[in-house]
Amino acid sequence: MYGPLPAPPRPPRPHRGLRVTLGVLLVVALILGVGDSVLFRRGLGAGQPGAAFVAGDQGLIDLLGRRAAAVTRHDEGAFLADVDQEDPRFAERQRTEYTNLVALGLASFSLTLTEPDRYRPANDSPLLRRYGGLVRQVGVTVRYAVTGVDTEPEAEPWVPTFGFAHDRWLLAGEETAGGNSHLPFGAGGQPWEGRGRSAWYGPPTWSW
After folding, report:
1. How far, in Å, are 80, 83, 174, 195 from residue 96 at the CA level?
2. What does the alpha-carbon distance between residue 125 and residue 24 come to, in Å, rounded to a whole number?
3. For the chain, what are the domain ranges?
4. How far apart are CA 48 and CA 70, in angstroms?
5. What is the pLDDT of residues 71-102, one digit of tens each?
6. So what's the pLDDT on residue 190?
7. In angstroms, what is the C-alpha Rg of the chain?
8. Residues lower than pLDDT 70 in the chain
9. CA 143 from centroid of its chain's CA atoms
10. Helices 57-73 and 88-103, axial angle in degrees (round to 10)
11. What is the pLDDT of residue 176?
């Protein structure tokens, strides 16, 4: 007679280090009452998976509020304070965008986080490596009115990318016009967006 069949192989168990890390983070979150936070899985080193809680939507909402207020107050330092300075070309484009926004003569300007979970950075994005995976790409609605031109604020889409470092979010990138097929119509094509050394020198002249 044949003997008993061997037991089927057990399914692979999750990495013990990852389970321990997640368990510790969950306990800390419950103890501290972490309400507005995001859990990221990330690599902590050579082949060592891990996870981290970081500030969630409220951190981005606060950053957008500071950026909009800096435009209306004409405060370049505050506008650039939340910009990643690791990429000098990106930082310079942000400086150009600030100059263009101020030159528009805006009557109002606001930034509202409207799609916090719709977008994902590309898997090969260098920002993922720079920030150890702690990156978010979100949808923002820009509302602005140009003095003497707009009777009501215009609304346009903006798709920025933020990286989390030193316990804070930083603006690290933004989608450009035609850069991605999944972008909403109009994203990355605003007149104030800095490209090279171009600048915006006042409101548009309409012709029909």
Report:
1. 11, 13, 14, 8
2. 30
3. 16-55, 57-174
4. 41
5. 999 999 999 999 999 999 999 999 999 999 99
6. 77
7. 22
8. 1-53, 55, 177-189, 194-208
9. 18
10. 50
11. 72
What sign does the dihedral 13-16-21-23 (CA atoms) show? Answer: positive
Whole-angstrom distance, CA of residue 52 vs CA of residue 71: 33
The model's pTM: 0.70
Give the integer Cα–Cα distance in Å for 169 and 84: 9
Torsion-angle region of 166 (φ positive above 0: left; ψ -120 to 50: alpha; else: beta): left
Please work out, in degrees rounded to the nearest 5, the angle formed at the alpha carbon of residue 26 by the alpha carbons of 23 and 29. Answer: 150
- Alpha helical stretches, state H, the chain: 16-32, 57-73, 76-81, 88-103, 126-130
- CATH number of the structural domain 57-174: 3.10.450.50
Q: Measuring CA to CA, which residue among 203, 90, 77, 96 is closest to residue 147?
A: 203
- Tokens representing residue 144 in the block: 């602005």
